[in-house]
């Protein structure tokens, strides 16, 4: 057991890496420039009203752009989109160079071929430690068939269904 006082950033990242997630790209357009970053901090907050949250590092260009634009999209990546996940995780690069982006209904760029995308209006944002928690009110949802990209322990992978019936009281 690691005592609380010894929880440094690497230990924290490793421990949270045991929590398997999907992978998404948060995109926005601020002053005509597209921005985007890979995230796995995506969480559903509320169904009615429909709210989600993402935690964006304070230093990132996309964080400031999302807050400034007041709108963003979350593209949940499909199983074979890990190159896109890597592209949008490289700091300081033009993430959109040579990329064929489409726009959602609310004039924000979205990632083509994503498993789902949700367009949001920034409902609220606040600083928590070294990240900005952004709560988005979901305006539009678009889903497509396929499988999601997974992430755990620093590795991309597949999320494999065991084929049981969906949890009936939940879905
Ligand atoms: C799988 C994965 C998940 C990530 N999740 C987050 C996240 O939830 N929040 C975050 O701030 N950065 C996250 N990052 C790091 C950002 O994608 C990276 O710092 C990004 O390049 C910053 O964007 P910028 O170029 O606009 O500065 C993640 C990276 C990877 C590879």
Q: What number is the mean pLDDT?
A: 93
Q: Within the largest sheet, what's the order of strands?
A: 3-2-6-9-10-5-4
Number of helices: 3
Low-confidence runs (pLDDT<50, min 5 residues)?
none
Q: How many beta-strand elements? A: 12
As for the number of domains, it is 1
Keywords:
single chain; 171 residues; Pnp Oxidase, Chain A; 3-stranded antiparallel beta sheet; binds flavin mononucleotide; oxidoreductase activity
Characterization of the model:
The protein is mainly beta. It has a single domain (4-156), classed as Electron Transport, Fmn-binding Protein, Chain A (Pnp Oxidase, Chain A), CATH 2.30.110. It contains 3 helices and 12 strands, in the order αβββββαβαββββββ. It has helices spanning 9-16, 61-69, 82-87, and strands at 21-22, 24-30, 33-39, 43-46, 51-57, 71-76, 102-103, 109-110, 116-128, 131-143, 149-152, 155-158. The strands form 3 sheets. It has a 7-stranded antiparallel sheet with strand order 3-2-6-9-10-5-4. A 3-stranded antiparallel sheet has the order 1-11-12, with no helix packed on it. The chain has a two-stranded antiparallel sheet with strand order 7-8. A hairpin with a 2-residue loop joins strand 11 (149-152) and strand 12 (155-158). The radius of gyration is 16 Å and the shape is globular. Flavin mononucleotide binds at residues 23, 35, 37-41, 55-57, 60-62, 85, 88-91, 131, 151.
Which helices and strands occur, and which strands form pairs?
Elements: H1 9-16, E1 21-22, E2 24-30, E3 33-39, E4 43-46, E5 51-57, H2 61-69, E6 71-76, H3 82-87, E7 102-103, E8 109-110, E9 116-128, E10 131-143, E11 149-152, E12 155-158
Antiparallel strand pairs: 1-11, 2-3, 2-6, 4-5, 5-10, 6-9, 7-8, 9-10, 11-12
The chain binds flavin mononucleotide.
């Amino acid at each position: 057991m690691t005592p609380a006082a010894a929880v440094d950033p690497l230990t924290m990242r490793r421990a949270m890496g045991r929590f398997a997630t999907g992978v998404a790209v948060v995109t926005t357009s601020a002053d005509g420039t597209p921005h985007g970053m890979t995230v796995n901090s995506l969480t559903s907050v509320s169904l009615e009203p429909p709210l989600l949250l993402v935690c964006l590092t304070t230093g990132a260009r996309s964080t400031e752009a999302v807050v400034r634009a007041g709108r963003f999209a979350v593209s949940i990546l499909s199983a074979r989109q890990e190159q896109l996940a890597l592209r949008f995780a490289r700091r300081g690069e033009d993430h959109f160079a040579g990329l064929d982006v489409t726009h959602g209904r609310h004039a924000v760029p979205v990632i083509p071929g994503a498993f789902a995308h949700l367009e949001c209006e920034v409902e609220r944002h606040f600083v928590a430690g070294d990240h900005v928690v952004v709560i988005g009110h979901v305006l539009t949802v678009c889903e497509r068939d396929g499988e999601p990209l997974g992430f755990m322990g620093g590795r991309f992978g597949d999320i494999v269904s065991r084929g049981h019936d969906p949890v009936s009281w939940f879905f």
